[in-house]
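Note to self: keep these together.
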Amino acid sequence: MATSFLFDGSDAAPVTILIAHGAGASMDSPSMTATAKALAAAGFQVARFEFHYMAARRYGHRKPPPRAETVNPEYIKAIADLRARGVTGKLIIGGKSMGGRVASMVADEMFEKGEIVGLVCLGYPFHPPGRPEQLRTKHLLDLKTPTLIFQGTRDEFGTKEEVATYGLSNAIEVVWLDDGDHDLKPRKAMSGFSTADHLRTVAETIVAKFAQPSGSSS
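Structure:
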């Protein structure tokens, strides 16, 4: 069965971003929708999709999230299905939390094949909350794909102090968003920032890294 997508932005955009959802919220959740709209406003075409277990919930099948690595083939198929729909320009893959983790596990294979130009993770789940010893970083230590990880400074899945000790690949740039939680949402009274501010920073940073014209500096 072909992957179903939600599209935002122009289909003439030179760069498309394919994003998958987190473990517990669908591709059309408020957080995913706000993210897609912010990226589209910055000039990207954005394609959202769901893993099978999440799509099944729309029909009353309450399946728990599977182990992340078991849905790697679904992400690879989504890339192929997106290409089959005529998306031929530069492609960045990524996602929210688990979706970004899955994208990170297939990224190098796709990058080496020339299928993608980069990876974007929004709130990477470095470890389960309260269990900092259960790291999900092994494949990130020698990642080759140019990567942006956007992490809130209040994210319980990986603090700034913890992440600094992980020895992540030099291909990875971690961008810290002040007072953001796992959804990158800050407390405006505490930080002076809104979620929209942080999503604008996300979009502008991705533009600077991946969408500059050839020969220009980012």
